[in-house]
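pasting for ref
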Amino acid sequence: MINLLNSKSVILQIYAAIIIVSITSGCSVITSRNITSTATKYMISAANPLAAKAGAEILNIGGSAVDAAIAAQLVLTLVEPQSSGIGGGAFLMHYDAKTGKVESYDGREVAPRSAHPKMFLRDGKPLNFLDAATSGISVGVPGLLRMLELAHRDHGELPWNNLFNPAIKLAEEGFSISHRLAYLLSREKILRKTPSAKRYFYSSEGKNKPVGSLIKNAALAKTFRSVAAGGADAFYRGPIARGIVAAVVGSDPPGHMTLADIAAYRAVKRSPICTDYRKWQICGMGPPSSGGIAIAQIFGILENFEIEKIEPTSLMAIHLVGEASALAFADRNAYLADSDFIPVPVYSMIDKGYLKSRADLISLKKAGPKRAPGELPTLNYSADNTSKGLSTTHISVIDSEGNSVSMTSSIETTFGSRLMTGGFLLNNQLTDFSFQPVRANKPIANSVAPWKRPRSSMAPTLVLDHKGRLVMAIGSPGGSRIIGYVVKTLVAALDWKKDIQAAIDMPFFVNRNSVMELEKGTSLKLLEPGLKKLGHKVKFISRASGLHGIRIVTDGLRGGADKRREGVALGN
């Protein structure tokens, strides 16, 4: 164990006033600005107040954590279309309070049968990312609804069709455009070129609709009614599926998804990635997500240092977490992909002895060079840092029985592929594959193949104590930076004993084995000279995380919502 008590840097946290507004019987909405919501029975934290309200209403009538997550996600499809929806995919972590069992559900999109390793190349060169991302070739078969249905069969309490009622009502009666949605629509150019999307999101003249404008989505309400009545089959077979195929093959350049591709989709239950860290157990999603393994690696490395004894967001704290992250990303970029196609040595990657050897590469006096992946058995792949996904959302739920869901869902870039059908946008997740199948005469693990799931960085996370009892549910959007956002929050909450909201509010710092990225406009600016002296390349970024979490405390539940977006925590 390395002693780091000589670190001197102290970061002062300044908090805004608490604003609590009553919105439904038995529930209170907490604004996402430096606020901690407290409850004794149940709680949900989600990226939009209307989605959180829908989930809270389900919890209030006896719904399970899975029920609430479904209701909230359906509303997010409507009110936060830039980030997620039924045209995309998700990963879901579930904790069963009766058994202490942690389960993980994979609803990641898959490539159609026509996919091949060179599909993103033209004349041997990679396509321009935006050209690929806004066409049918980028669309993976959506997995969200199949996954939600599978989780509901295992852990639902209320009837499936009842969970659609809040979203159907909002779609038919209308909702007000939020500040965030209005801002993103005003900056969006390509969405205006999709006729159905243009008619829905903009005025008849193609102008921006102002904040507060009421918009209705009759097409999505119809889609929801079909799936509510017929289950996920109504989405994966019949008119909705035909609409997806028409949108994909009718784009420029066209994709080649078929009705058979959509009908063949299956959600998968996978083994969660759980690792011991001090007195806790941190559980996350395994491949095809890189999130769970990368986080397990970072904490396996940090366990060799006394980070709990140094000042939060001090120079040494950021150096240490950044170096651990760089080492984890070196392995991530080389070895992580869909484990149904690639022999990912999961347990070798999170082995304590292996991670101790990686920790030994860290110097407290200087930053290391760009890290090489560790030597792992049977693997000979070239590194690939593909990760473009930015439009993602996260939901954390704990129900009145103590069951929990941590779910991250996405359509990849802002507004996904911009292709719209049935009132919802389609993903462009296939651009999370490497555009090149080979580099430096070595194959790339995350290259494209039929039925393969692209590598993700989504990291829905559950934390348990040494007795297997739930401690926390947390997650975030943010592309490959998700890993850093979640690590920062876990270190703050577990090692530095920060309140969940304070941990979420803490400025982020991310090292993806390149530069040290620090949150722009925060007190981290003061650390720039010291980090550069250590040898770090420093860059300030204003990317918005979207951390939403809940922590169990002695007097009940505390929920946090990221002030960088518009989410809220609701509880009773």
